[in-house]
Design goal:
192 residues; alpha+beta; 6-stranded antiparallel β-sheet; 6 strands
């Protein structure tokens, strides 16, 4: 058990180091990976939705070097959202974060500001790093605790099915929040 915890910690530290510098230009495979996940989720922050919509949404975080609207490696965030009204008689309903200030998150995102996931919403962050090869990472964010690494794989290997399975299972865990098991243990049990 002790050795397993040390290996987990070492893996997490290495992943954080690989992500710290970021990648200025994502390789084509990384961009395809993000687009595929966005397509699976379907709804993006700020998309027009029906008035009673609730569900999962995605959006890309921005960094300081991304002020011109380019692609960045701050990551793709997946979390719960809901429809929010932009006001007025002929209001349009947009996909906002599932928080009381949902309209503000949509407005900030449309203006090009970085939208930090709120502390009261569990979320997943998908980003990339580069060691000996390009790696994809999935992180779990909860309250003010540091991100927990729940998945990593080499981008050039066949990782897409496994990545989508981990994301799906993590979303199921976030929705059900079983008290008797952690997300990491839940993922280990559900993997073949």
């Amino acid at each position: 058990m002790f050795n397993h915890k040390l290996l987990e910690l070492e893996s997490e530290l290495l992943a954080k180091q690989q992500c710290a510098g970021g990648l200025v230009d994502l390789p084509y495979e990384c961009e395809l990976c993000l687009q595929s996940i966005e397509q699976e989720v379907g709804i993006k922050l700020g998309d027009q939705t029906p008035k009673d919509w609730k569900g999962w949404l995605s959006y890309r975080r921005k960094d300081a070097s991304d002020s011109q609207g380019g692609k960045s490696n701050c990551g793709l965030v997946l979390l719960r959202g809901r429809a929010c009204s932009e006001g007025g008689l002929f209001a349009k309903w947009k996909a906002g974060l599932d928080v009381p200030f949902a309209v503000d998150t949509v407005t900030e995102f449309k203006r090009g500001f970085d939208v930090t996931p709120p502390q009261d919403l569990d979320h997943l962050l998908i980003n990339f790093g580069r060691g000996k090869s390009f790696r994809v990472f999935v992180w779990y964010g909860e309250n003010i605790a540091p991100y927990r690494l729940i998945f990593e794989a080499d981008v050039h290997e066949d990782h897409e099915i496994q990545l989508k399975d981990v994301i799906t299972e993590a979303c199921v865990w976030i929705m059900t929040r079983p008290k008797e098991i952690t997300l990491a243990d839940f993922l280990k049990q559900s993997s073949p």
